[in-house]
Amino acid sequence: MKAEVSAMDLLWGRGVRGSRGPRPVLTVGQIAEAAVEIADAEGLPAVTMQRVAQRFGFTAMSLYRYVPGRAELVALMVDSAMGVAPAVDAAEGWRPALRRWAGHLRDVFRSHPWVTQATIQARPIGPNELSWLERAVALLGGSGLAGGERVDAVMIVTGHVRNQVQAEIGIAADDGVHLAMSLAETLRERAADFPALTEAAAGGAFGPGDTDGFAFGLECILDGLERRMPT
């Protein structure tokens, strides 16, 4: 009889299948890839055990032989979508290297927008996702920051990347240009009530050219980290 496996077992290849029962014809990797395809096309809520099983001509109950539930499936999906973190050349220093790392992470989040939702809550972490943290923490290895500070720094950068991509997704879904124009018009009508925002809008905020929040925020974070490093 097959022993119950956890998400960590599946992510790290520790699941043990008993000798009885039919021979497996799928791998958890194939199942995760199929689920990622559904999420990329239709969003995370569209991913159900039944939908994924149908990709293989199975019933949902048959899929439970491989993955015990949807929560475990989502954990597998995240690790599959993240992939192994690309190598980043640190020869130019930690700052440009961490900037490139953040750019790579942004590309992943943009390619799989649902990952920004799936990675907010506490969850089991697999080897691919952990490789991203490993790469970034290593880039700060000679910075003089303590171990906990290096990890915290990477989590701050990760949060910024996630928030910016989520904002991009929201703008695309809600017609951000129309909303910005509506806000600018409202500020003109209520300038006396919101003088600081009205002044900011006059200086380009909420306009078509106000699109570089990712770079600005990232540089602010990197500036702060640099000031924390021993001289």
Automatic annotation (TrEMBL):
Keywords: DNA-binding, Transcription, Transcription regulation. Residues 48-67 bind DNA. Pfam families: TetR_C_1, TetR_N. SUPFAM superfamilies: Homeodomain-like, Tetracyclin repressor-like, C-terminal domain. Residues 25-85 form the HTH tetR-type domain. Gene3D superfamilies: Homeodomain-like (1.10.10.60), Tetracycline Repressor, domain 2 (1.10.357.10). It comes from the Bacteria. PROSITE patterns: HTH_TETR_2. InterPro entries: Homeodomain-like_sf (IPR009057), HTH-type_TetR-like_transc_reg (IPR050109), HTH_TetR (IPR001647), Repressor_TetR_C (IPR004111), Tet_transcr_reg_TetR-rel_C_sf (IPR036271). This is TetR/AcrR family transcriptional regulator. It comes from Actinoplanes subglobosus.
